[in-house]
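Service request form, structural biology core

Requester: graduate student, group of Dr. S.
Request type: structure prediction, single chain
Budget code: on file
Notes: please return the result as structure tokens.

Sequence provided:
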Amino acid sequence: MKNENILADIKSKSLKESREEINRILSKLENKETSLEESFSDYQRLIQLNKHVDNLFKKKFKEILE
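Core staff response, request fulfilled:
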């Protein structure tokens, strides 16, 4: 998944905001009463959030190296 494929509302999140949403989604996915359709869309969002966090870390790493 390339950076361009990440939703705009996710791209605008800080690391802290992303981490908080990831934790909310994980809690929701662990709930056995969540529907399969809802779980699938949450999982897709989780993947995008994870990619965004990875991109934030890579950007900070490059800044540190410069």
